[in-house]
Amino acid sequence: MEQVLLAFGDVFTVSSIFYIILGVAMGVFVGAVPGVNGPMAVAIAVPLTYYMDPLIAIAFLVGILKGSRYGGSISAILLNVPGDPEAAATCFDGYPMAKQGKAGKALKMALYSSVFGDTFSDVVLILVAAPIALIALKMGPTEITSVIIFALTLIATLSGMSLSKGLIAAAFGIFINCIGTDPMTGDERLTMGFYELENGIPLMAIGIGMLALSEVLLHIEERAAGKTESFELREDTPKEDRNVSLKEFKGVLKTLFRSSLIGTGIGALPGLGVTIAAFLGYGAAKRASKDPDSFGKGNIEGIAAAEAANNAVVGANLIPLFTLGIPGNVTAALIIGAFMIHGVTPGPLMFQEHARLMYGIYICLILANLLNLVIGGFGLRVFSKVVKFKKSILYPIIIFVCIAGAYMADNSLFAVGLMLFFAVLGYFMKKLDFSFVTFIIGFVLGPMFELSLQQTLAISRNNPLILVQRPISLAFLLLTAVFIWRTVRRSKKRAKGRI
Amino acid sequence: MKKADMISALFLLVMGVLFIFVIIPQQTGEGEEFGMSPAALPTTAMLIIVGLSLILLFQSISSKSDSSDGPPPLEGRNWLNIGIYTALLFLSLGAIKVIGFIPGGILSIAAFAVLMGARNPISIGLVAVIPPVLLFFALRYGLRVPLP
User: Fold this and answer.
1) Among partner residues A178, A393, A462, which is closest to B42 by beta-carbon distance?
2) B100, HSE (Cβ side, Cα atoms, 13 Å)
3) Would you call A403 and B86 a contact, using CB atoms and an 8 Å cutoff?
4) pLDDT, tens digit, for every residue of A187-235?
5) Do A231 and A78 touch, CB atoms closer than 8 A?
6) Residue A137 carries which DSSP code?
7) A-B Cβ pairs (cutoff 8 Å, strict)
8) Which whole-number Å values give the CA distances from A302 to A76, A256, A282, in the listed order?
9) Scanning every residue of chain A, which has its alpha carbon at the shortest distance from the alpha carbon of B47?
């Protein structure tokens, strides 16, 4: 209890609240601009957190993420162009509502649903993380090795069309992590004579390059494929078309709970994306509706379903991160980077060693939701203007901010060069359908995997068969085999269907 | 995608073999007698890549092309685009290194803005000057980051 009270004291300081507000506002802003998204903003913002307290750093990043999830719905509703891919499902009913002159109502429903979904998954995280961590603490290096193999295979299976490509990306991520110094002998490894590589490749060079800059390079190529009509918030709109009434909110409450549950379930599993959650939530609401034909024509329930589901992923994504130290997606991988910067290793031990920090993070998560509601509500008019930013103005600034961010990661231009290399690599990976998500997670999990594998071999006197001799380890390896078998069978069926 | 898969599988295969037999042995130490050698994990990762590249190559050779393949993921204009932007990105890095953060930043932002279709000199000027100056003061004096 004392730790909880101390955590409250840590959170309710001027600087903490300032950075959460800044994070949420930045998140809504970047989320609203089509072509710029939350993970991109988190990648660029992580180097800034070098200079912050751990709690403020994580709160700032989580604020960006939460804000950007809601921000994505603004351009989806006003422009019919989702700010984030996961906001695509919001377009289905959001844009028709804007066409009917109900843009304000649609945006407010998106905001309330986002905050509802976010809060729901945060509560689930708070309730389940510590008990799962207690179980995780009983696992030894052998079990951890198998869990990592399982997680990487699961992510590789789910994040692209081809299992081979996903696993190649994961192996390549682990390989790139080997560059630097061998953890056991302290010898240089694969540095090619560059002394700058002795400490390994900074995660931020990879994160900013692959998440932010490569995305900009891809967007630059896209030509405007026909203009769509855009809408603005107007003062002369009738009040009932601007606001969500209590009756309307009560009407979608069931949908909000269902979508939040779907989003939380999807978020807790590594590898399943936010976009899947949004579409599953939308589909479930349509199936359960008494009037499914009205979906896609401006049904407010459609917005509630999609937004609650995609926002519920945020908190749930932190469950595997906090309990096992395994990132479920790229943003969680970047948050691991931010934890490591501050000397905190994510995983079950955090609950023992950094209890005050953990309680602080929980409080920040809930506070960020409330601030999202306030900032999103009051700033609606301002944020609705940013959807019209010109790309020729915005992208050069983002490119320069990427360069500055990569420089801050290592205080060297060498890190910027690495970031540019990974941006080009990310561009080709995305074009050729090699999962960059699996690559980054492979890179992040590399040190943990190598350490647990070394420990496993040490306790078994170099006998790798120990991995199948322990029940929990064997169970995860069997699960891995089942996933591979199912994926191969599915792709064979798909290939047969095409012939 | 079929042709692109074949080329990327071949590229990965050659890269993997090169790493396993030439680069990893040259760039890693012997290690100790007990436990894993420093070369073990990178070699295993590359072996996995080589094995999976062979599977990918086999899959792309044996699969039949049809209309659902769509256009190739990388066409001439994509190569031209990525070539120009990569060159400009590395030139920007060089400019920042040689003439400093603010002048290098101004030049690179202006160059990118023009390349992306901005034509209004006032907006190009404002966009090119304000971010580098603001970032310089925020990082140098706010966060005390030593900048070039």
Assistant:
1) A178
2) 7
3) no
4) 889 998 888 888 889 888 898 898 889 988 888 876 544 455 666 666 6
5) yes
6) T
7) 181
8) 13, 10, 6
9) A171
